[in-house]
Amino acid sequence: MRILKLNEETKADILGSLLKRSPSQYEEYEQTVKSIVDDVKARGDEAVCEYTTKFDRWDATAGGLKVTSDEIKAAYDEVDPKFIEVLKEAADNIRDFHIRQKRDSWIVTKEDGSILGQRILPIDSVGCYAPGGKAYYPSSVLMNIIPAKVAGVKRIVLATPAMAESGKVNPITLVAADIAGADEIIKVGGAQAVAAMAYGTDSIKKVCKITGPGNIFVALAKKACFGMVGIDSIAGPSEILVIADDTADPRYVAADLLSQAEHDELASAILLTDSEDFAGKVSAEIDEFLKTLDRNDIITKSLDNYGYILVGKSMDELIDAANDIASEHLEIQTKDAYEIMTKIRNAGAIFIGPYSSEPLGDYFAGPNHILPTNGTARFFSPLNVDEFTKKTSLISYSKAGLEAVHEKIEYFAKQEKLTAHANSIKVRFK
So what's the pLDDT on residue 24? Predict the structure, then answer.
């Protein structure tokens, strides 16, 4: 793994390289996605079935687009009971964490009797996307559906591709969706799934918001449908950044960097350290791990493309670089890990200490693993209960309350040349 000196030039080069992975940079796919979205909007189920048959390679016209209750029951018989128990325990952890995020509506009453407040209500319906087909991610199913359920969403739809030829959704995905509390499951993936949930078809009723990770076509379809529906974010490739000093175990750090590099060739893995000797040890451990790991080819390409070990002069320099990169996952394995944590402003999730490896957050700890990528942790948050609620302001002024301020409001409106606004207040006190 390449080792570089950390300075403003290398940091700028790396940031530029990382940003090229953003879904917003893939203009060549946008027209393809737009044509799929427009086609589904125009032809509904007919278009959805055609694209499903074409891309997922099973006859959607014959099998139907929705998973039946019998299919869900059968799935439990196909999944190892031990894994079902692990899924249930992970779901409990995720649920417990997200319950703590819930907010209450509030109302305040002023001395003159005027009332102000905020109502917090769940969104009526959401569509949660989970990758499927060749790969399946039950962890993403849990992370999508459970916070929506905690928020009180009445209708939760899971969209996930079925397996080629069989037209069946992976049984592990079905069990995870049932444990999480999905109300409907549709066997549709890609841009056509997003479009169907955004615009609605005869068999797939439209939703109010779409969340969850997917490939470039899913990401761009969410972008194209934003406005017709809400979305959580436009997710990019996975990334990990580790801040470590020479008190860390180089073997732990190397293993953690590789845990994200195996996702795909666009994944990013970066180590920031103030020790050149430690950098060399981590690089050597990575070489050893690569001899035994299954996804060796993908990891190697990922590290060649977006893997870096950066050696800085001080911990403050490393912290500044970490805040500029704003990584999806940030691990801190240093002597004063909690103190450093307080200086991190931009990260999707922070893992503190040698026994808080990133996969702990992926599967089991409870915080959501659907996180901001490509530097968007500077202004985005992890998927959370708030994403599945909406807020409505309440305003109820008494006559005395309005009378006390009406002239100021009229004056304000006139400054904006909106005399009808001013008149709406004025007529009440003629």
Answer: 67
